[in-house]
Design a protein that fits this description.
mainly alpha; 5 helices; globular
Amino acid sequence: MEQVLRYLITQYIKCKITKNELDKDEFYSEVRQYQSDGYQHIFCTVLLERMGYYQENVMGLWEDLNQLWADGCYSPYLYLYQAMILLQEPDLPEH
């Protein structure tokens, strides 16, 4: 898992430096593929959020946070993200 996270962080930095939309789309695909292959980690969700992946899809972030909670992750960052979402979308059901 550590090697996957290092790789994804490297790709994240590359995308931030180049600001290339194709690199960004490839990054999104790679992270989502790792997640679907079982690499569920808060850093994957945070990297996607920081890159803007959830900007148009707040419910996608909400669902990913719920999956992390279901998997036993209780990082304070999850609660911070949940609070930020509820401030933006107060009609969302509370978890």
